[in-house]
Structure formats: C-alpha cells, structure tokens
Input
Amino acid sequence: MKVVFDDEAFSYQLLRTLGYAPYKGADIGECLQTAYRIKEGDFESWYQEWFDTAERIRGIADASLNSGDNISARETYLRASNYYRSAEFFIHGDPADARILETSRKSRESFQQAAALCEPPLESVTIAYETTTLPGYFIKADTSMAPKPTLILNTGFDGTAEELYFTGAAAASRGYQCLLFEGPGQGRVIREQSIPFRPDWEKVITPVVDYLLARKDVMSARIALYGISLGGYLAPRAAAFEHRLAACIANGGVFSLFQVFADNRGLSEEEAERYVTDSPEGLDKSVEEAMKHNSELRWGVEDGMWKFNAKTPHEYVLKLKAYSMADCADKVACPTLVIDSEKDTKFPGQARKLYEALRSEKEFMLFTVRDAAEEHCQAGASLLSNQRVFDWLDKTFKKSKRS
Output
C-alpha cells in the first residue's frame, strides 16, 4: 500500500501517521502536504518537514487554549504530538543528537496538554521498576471508581506511550480502562534513562500488574495485555510467566527475532549464527553498504543498535537470539489472540509460528489486502483493527465469566 513515496519505509511511516486520523491524531491534508515537501529517502528532509508541521499545529493549539477553546486545543495538541513523534522517527543514527530529546519532549508535552483537556482527564502515572520507575498514563472509561476490566497497552520497537493513546481511546469507548506505559528500550526510558531492551519481559510486566492490582478501580480478574509490533513478542513472553493476566493479544505475533534475520537470508538459524560469528566484520561491512541504499534497513540497524545497546551490526544481530518463544510458548496459560497481516514485511511468517507453538486457548486473526488492512499492525486501518480485536476481547471476557 504505497502512499506518496516509492520508498517503502517513508510510505509506511506516512501511512502510520495518517492512520490516527479517525481518533483525531492526524488531519489528512496536513499529512499529505507535509509528505509532498519531503525528499524521497532523505532522513533530514523527513525530520525538518514534519517538525515544521508540528510546530505550526502546536501554535494553533496554544492559541486555542489561550482563547478558552478547549475542544479545539485538545484535538490540535493531539495532532501536534503525533507529528512531532513522526519527525523524530528517522534521526536515531546518532543517539546523542540533541533533536531526539527536544522533539520527543515536545511530542510528550503536546500530548499532556491534550490529556489534561480530556473527559475525564488522563492520569500520568509512574510504575516502580527495579531501581527506577517507568512512565505511563491511565485512561479511565468514566469518572466512577467502580472496578472495571483493564487493558495494558504495550508498545514495541519504536512506539511511545503517547502514540498508544489512539488505541486506548478506542478501548475506553468500549468500557475498558487502559494503562499505557513505556518499558526498557522504549520512549522516555531509552531516551532519558538509557535503559535498553531486555528479552525477559515478564520482569517488566509483573511490576505493571502489581501497580494495577493496587488500584481500587481495576478488576483483578480482568486484566489483559495487548502487545503491538515488537510487543507481539514482548506480550506473550510476559504472559508465559505472569499468570495473573486474563488474556493476551499479540499484534503481530513474533516467535523469534533471530529467525527473522535468518529467514531474510534464506538460512537456518544455525547457519545464520555461524555466518555472523565466523565473519562479524564481513557482516558489518555488508550491512553498512546495504544501508546506503535501503532506508528501512538503515533505520532498523541504527535504531536497533541504540535500543539494544550494541556497538556494531553483528553485535545487534547476536542479541536478537535471546528474543525467542521457543522455550516458553507452552507456558502461556491465558486465552491468546495472535494477529497477522497479509503483507507484513517486518516479521513475515512469525505470527503463524507463534500461534502453532502456543498450547493455551488461542485464536488466529488475519487481516488481508481485501480488508485494506494488510500492512504491519494494520497501519491505516485502525477502525477495522480495533473493532475486530476488541470484539475478541469482549467475547473472551464474557466466555470466561460464564465458565
């Protein structure tokens, strides 16, 4: 599904940004006008044009707030937040680039301005985690303190808690409370605390569940975990060991990150490991050369080395070996929804492998070209995606209540 750009990475990220329009996170004309100004495959051009648009829209939001037009301010701050997020996306080649913190902070501040104007207002939260804390937001379905089913929204490789709001808003409209949070390798945690990803994600989710169970407005037997993108590994990995979860959703499902690397080269995992370990410098040179001609690869390697704390491409690839469900998929006990998209180029074939490895009650959900939802995580089709996913969760909770 090409949008404006021939460059696959730019087209997908434009579709992703556009896709939040149904939840007032984007306006189509603003996005297209921005895209038309961007030089194909040019990371600096992408940053500057999205940043300029975000600044302009935030100026409109500030003026609306100062005039007491709270609805206009809320909606405009949401768009500005999304545009700042998009601007910052491709500039991670140098993690010390001051624009990373500046732009992500502006995205967060814009979102928090909008959050304060929501009804009811979103609650900023901190979750105790090892020797530090994790940031997040709590979305209430209404103003009562009555305990309600609660959904943990777990972003993936490159999302933010603020971006999760658009999925959370859809869930809240169905009566679910939502906890949006960022863990190691994500959002503020990597940018401001420099804490990289870890494969044993149950060590992250258990403190999150502990936090929820301390709240009086959460139904302890109705906590679900929804992992998006790389969260399609992180969520089921956590569910394999954190058995207080009542349901798990993996969109799209991921069985083994190293297997993705091996499959992309037509190798078995054993052959791929020998390839990396026998000639690490050769791998680094070939990857660095390929990055010059492939925006998706360049972004993925630069971003991955930063967030996985790797100094070279081969070190990054070897770190992926720990991110596998091979030894724990059978430990997932809760009902699990595994989602795939027909044209997913990020983790092709992985959802089916995860689904087949699970031994719990499970369902496989495929989004197709005919659905106009074939892209990774159904980018550009959020209304359909949320409808089908939350229909499954409604059905799963009703079924468990009867049993």
Remarks:
- The longest strand covers residues 218-228.
- The chain has a mean pLDDT of 97.
- Residues 178 and 314 are 38 Å apart (CA to CA).
